[in-house]
Amino acid sequence: MQTTHQQKNYRYYGTLRRLLNRKAGPNIRKIVDKTHPADMAQILSYFTAEDKLGIIRYAKDDRRRAEILREMQLESAAEMVLLMQVPQAVAIILEMSTDDQADLLGSLDEQHANAIIAAMPKDESDDVQELLRYDENSAGGIMNPDVLAIHMDSTIAEAIKVVQDHEDVDMIFYLYVVDDHGSLCGVLSLRHLVISKPDVVIKHIMNPNVVSVRTEEDQEDVARLVTRYDFLAIPVVDDTNNLVGAVTVDDVIDVIAEEATEDFLKMAGAGEEQEENASAFKHVLGRAPWLFAALVGGIATSFVIRNFEDTLSTYLSLAAFIPVIIGMAGNVGTQSLAVVVRGLATRQIKIKQAWQTISNEILVGTLLGCLYGAILGAVGLWQFSGNTPMAFNLAIAVGAATATAMLLAALVASSIPLMFARINIDPAVATGPFVTTAIDILGVTIYFTVVNLLV
Amino acid sequence: MQTTHQQKNYRYYGTLRRLLNRKAGPNIRKIVDKTHPADMAQILSYFTAEDKLGIIRYAKDDRRRAEILREMQLESAAEMVLLMQVPQAVAIILEMSTDDQADLLGSLDEQHANAIIAAMPKDESDDVQELLRYDENSAGGIMNPDVLAIHMDSTIAEAIKVVQDHEDVDMIFYLYVVDDHGSLCGVLSLRHLVISKPDVVIKHIMNPNVVSVRTEEDQEDVARLVTRYDFLAIPVVDDTNNLVGAVTVDDVIDVIAEEATEDFLKMAGAGEEQEENASAFKHVLGRAPWLFAALVGGIATSFVIRNFEDTLSTYLSLAAFIPVIIGMAGNVGTQSLAVVVRGLATRQIKIKQAWQTISNEILVGTLLGCLYGAILGAVGLWQFSGNTPMAFNLAIAVGAATATAMLLAALVASSIPLMFARINIDPAVATGPFVTTAIDILGVTIYFTVVNLLV
Asked: pTM for this one?
């Protein structure tokens, strides 16, 4: 169904493309206005920034334009805003909620952002500047400041009036209850409003055990709380417990996807962020450091091999097995690394039970090492026999080196991230290139040491 | 804060441990009853299944026990149920919602599940068996069948009555509107109930453009729809458009996390599923196939090297550069692979724009290849000079081989997943071990071919 969805959107792209070439305004307007903004954003992603602008100018009003922009990737939306005249940009941005305004303005360069902010009405620009002060990865940075607060002494009827008077506030799931000082002291679900009698005083039915986060709380921790307790939104308070906003579940979903992407790319040593249309140069900058670490390790590996050049000159065929031995060790290491890094991220693996995890990985590494060591040893025997009288010993050496290298790879790859986690360093820093290169050095050292012992 | 949260829970673990050893029932009960079920589940995760059972038997009632069980990892909950007498298990399971019952029963072995189902009241067991028939990764498998449906001719007052009469139904965000035949024809948010007049007829204010999914829809597509449109729940219908349940946003969050884990582990060739406490043997089974593929590739690599043994015997120092060249190519390949696989999963990369993605990766691979090829060439010159009159040519060969291998690695690693996606195969099948092994073969072939050309 998703595929058909995407295919349908791609067909619309074709249609719009043709209509745009013919400058068929009324037809374009019909499509833009009848398509869900989320779908429209996807369709627009196939166009250049100029053409995107050419299309949305046919939308029925700035509210519609704002809805489409907020569904787009931030970078694409920012690119469009940069092409607009300031008054046009301001008109569209004013139709957005404050948190969306902050996200968009935060992704513009400072000069453009300031020009737009200066052209906004003072109360709106104050609100958005307030939000822009928060770290974009904190609760304050992802919260929506438009929340409905109600005094604890109010009645259900008064609360219903508040909801009726704020039709413009998106995504209301809870009413937050405050005391005389504006401090958060309880929460009431919309369902309470539906099922309670109008004259009931809120403090008697509210849930006083309201879980809240501070503005500076890390977005990942916010996401974990919302997920753990199955909340639809979590209130955000300042230092004095004053309610300043709420993070809603749709933002939490974005955070979870973003953090998963980050871990995924970190694991491969491909930088942290994935940006649509990021320049090749930016990609190079993100990836080069990990490759540099791998290069240094690789050069170290070459020195290890040169150290054993005498052995190698006697048994040249040993060279053929270098890649497969370090490859197998590297692969089993990557597996252990992935299981441990992801397990720590999802809290399925606990730091307190590190030893249990490591010993399990060692067991797995040993079993896999023995299995593939035996196979490679047999291949070695077949390859070496006839070429040298030491064929049997060499084959045993290949098998034993494979098994040892795989076992140690599992040990190294599982203990490094756990060690990092223990001392409060993000375990995802123990990236693939880092660990596999360490395993390369380990692998060739073990290989030639075992060979020297056995022949 | 999350850390403090976890630390607090770990402290509770210590306390409970001591209380359990002293069999201090009333104190245990106090902790179990005052702690949020989600936290209690985390605390229990530090205990053995027997001790978990020993602790929750002090909970105030079966409802509390059910709440704790549903917050636990499925495997741990199932392990506990297996230790219970059937009547005890049934009493707890009957306190769960039907979808939680189905999840738990579905993770037991068939014999135990059937024994429990047979001991349940007929109407409850019919409901859960109905759910168990759906694929666990489909909309039917993750939906909650307890939804509130209301006839389109009802009034707001009647709808409010329905909500009031179903206090036991969890997570109500929307009322789904059906026609005379039970077909889904609209949706009404709780907010509508709050702000509308009691005598308004629902069909006049409902949103008739209700997005629904079929029971057989893949859970990943359901998650994507909910995320795209920022829904809190999405209704599930059968072949005849009859409302049979709804998937709520908390389940969608679980799906997103699960799918990210799946991709993460697949990428490392570590099987698909991560299970807490899965046996080492199970891990071995999950990982062995990818390693086998790597082994076959590794043996192929060894044949390639043996093929060039004459060159190698003339210039033995070449062997020292094998690991670093295939390592650098493998790392740049893994980076491209991660960016493309994750980009396809998050729809930031589109199949229709494959050529753009591949050419970008080739450009990145070329830039990185030239950079690190130059460095490695210089290292080679330093290493070879003095040992052979061909030092300069060998160094050029090392540098050129590095650059070429890295460029081709980026090409291979980005085009394979895109090719898979194009023919509707999950791009994550192009796993790390698979691609890095292919790059190993490619790398040594390029290396020795370039050497033979230049010396």
From this structure: 0.77
